[in-house]
Structures are given as C-alpha cells and as structure tokens.
Amino acid sequence: MQPKIVFLGTGGARFVVAKQFRATGGFVLQYGNEQIHIDPGPGALVRARQFDVDIEKNTAVLVSHDHLDHCNDVNAVIDAMTKGGITKKGVLIAAKPVVKGTKDKYPYLTTYHAKCIPKIVIAEPGKRTSLNNISITPTKAKHDAPGTVGFKIITPKFTLGYTSDTDWFRGIEKEYKGCDIMIIDNLRCFGKKYKGHFSSAETVKLLQKVKPKLAIIQHFGMTMLKANPVYEAREIQKKSKVQTIAATDGMHVDPISYSAKSGQTTLSNY
C-alpha cells in the first residue's frame, strides 16, 4: 500500500458524536503491508466504506482510552478484519480499561472478540510493540479516563505522533521528540480551555517545542466547529511557525511528503 493517513472522522465530544456533525470513525495509517486503525469511534465501519478503506486489511487496532468517541466500534472493527474470528490475525494495542474494564465499567472489548485477535497488548507509556518494521509506543497523556495514552508510530520513512485526548503537562513534548507529523486532538478553540483536553493554545505550545514538519488538528467539539477549524489552523500555524491543517472527514494525507528522511534523501541527490 502507498503510505497514507485516512481520516474516517474528525469529530469529538458528546454533542458532535450524537448529531454526527463530524464523523467519528477514527483514522487509519497505511504503510507497506500494514493498516493500522486508530481510535475507532461510532460509525467506523460505515465511514470506512464511505471513504474507501477496506477494514479487512487492518493488521492492528490502537485504542487510546475507553471513551465512546474513541473506542465504541472496537468490536465491530475486529469482527470485520477477522471475518468474525474465522481469520484470526492482527494485534490490538489498547488502554487497560478497554480490555479489562474498571470497577465502575465493563470492558468495551467483548470476550468473544478478544478471542478473534491473536495478540492483545495493554497500552502503557513507553511499552513498545513491533509490527514488522513499524514501532508503536504508547505515550503519556493527562485525561479523566484512567489509562489514557497517545501513540508514537515510527516507520522506516517517517515518525507519526498522536496525542489523543490530553491536557498539558510538564514534559509532554518529550513524548513526541523526533515526530515528522503530529495529529492533535484539538477539542476547543483559542480562549475556550476545557479540562483534560487541548485547545488551540496548547497545540501552539506543543508545536513550538516538538517542531514537526506538519501538524494536523482533529477531534473537534461544537465550540471548535463554531469557531471554524480552518481559521483556527491558520492561527495555530502563524503562532507556532509549523504548517498546520484542519482535518476533514475522508481527508487523505501522504506522510512521505513530510518526512525528514525523505527530505534528506532528496537533498543528497543534488
């Protein structure tokens, strides 16, 4: 597969999810023979069909935490990629409550679907999992869901960071050192801070420290949609000096275009 990031949804928070003002199917990274589905929220299968992503090609599913807008369709996705368990394949890397539950909540992952996928890894910050030539490491996050993580995905050609839902905390920039591309859950606009989440102001702070080649903001709440994510992205870019785009449902991004290694290879040709 040609390397590609496909957004199956860019919405977040309960009102956007309920009304589906933006889709909430998560996003997919395709690289070589690997297809990694990250945070499959409500409508993941429908949006995959709509945006021409074959879920049966999934080789990994990553789930950052057990909030509905991030993990609601984890069982449906596993069922589709394994043909109901007939073809047992792939790996699930998920926050502990998704797999084990908590004292107040049952796990999202059903017993049946846990048997459909041959490898399940409880996501813990710094605990690396290899997927052939791809390295996947959960990153620290500060959120109201226990066990929440982000992810750092290192391929031979580029490094991708995904914050998931998190508040600012000291040292967060260290989690994403060396990332060529950052996907940031930017729930709210400038001046509208909400506990446990990034607003545009926190996104600027992170980008100024990490300095990726590209930032993609997504996971928009109602306040952000009213402010217009395109305008917010422009302002984030002005303040951070990092190219920033606001994701849209169905958007495709070629990650190689923003790879430091790709740029070095190009320069060495001259």
Labels describing this entry:
270 residues; alpha/beta; Metallo-beta-lactamase, Chain A; eight-stranded mixed beta sheet; seven-stranded mixed beta sheet; 10 helices; 15 strands; 26% strand; disordered C terminus
Q: Which CATH C-level class is it?
A: Alpha Beta
Q: How many structurally independent domains?
A: 1
Q: What is the tally of beta strands?
A: 15
CATH fold descriptor = Metallo-beta-lactamase, Chain A
Can you offer a commentary on this structure?
This protein is of the alpha/beta class. It has helices at residues 14-19, 44-50, 68-71, 74-81, 96-100, 111-116, 200-210, 222-227, 229-240, 260-268, and strands at 4-9, 24-31, 34-38, 60-63, 91-94, 119-122, 129-131, 134-140, 149-154, 159-162, 181-188, 198-199, 214-218, 244-246, 252-253. The chain has a single domain (4-268), classed as Ribonuclease Z/Hydroxyacylglutathione hydrolase-like (Metallo-beta-lactamase, Chain A). Strands 7, 8, 9, 10, 11, 12, 13 and 14 form an eight-stranded mixed beta sheet that branches. Strands 6-5-4-3-2-1-15 form a seven-stranded mixed beta sheet. The longest helix has 12 residues, at 229-240.
Summed up, what is this model?
With 270 residues, the protein is α/β, with parallel strands linked by helices. Helices cover 27% and strands 26% of the residues.
Helix-strand layout with pairing:
Blueprint: E1 4-9, H1 14-19, E2 24-31, E3 34-38, H2 44-50, E4 60-63, H3 68-71, H4 74-81, E5 91-94, H5 96-100, H6 111-116, E6 119-122, E7 129-131, E8 134-140, E9 149-154, E10 159-162, E11 181-188, E12 198-199, H7 200-210, E13 214-218, H8 222-227, H9 229-240, E14 244-246, E15 252-253, H10 260-268
Parallel strand pairs: 3-4, 4-5, 5-6, 10-11, 11-12, 11-13, 13-14
Antiparallel strand pairs: 1-2, 1-15, 2-3, 7-8, 8-9, 9-10
Helix pairs in contact: 7-9
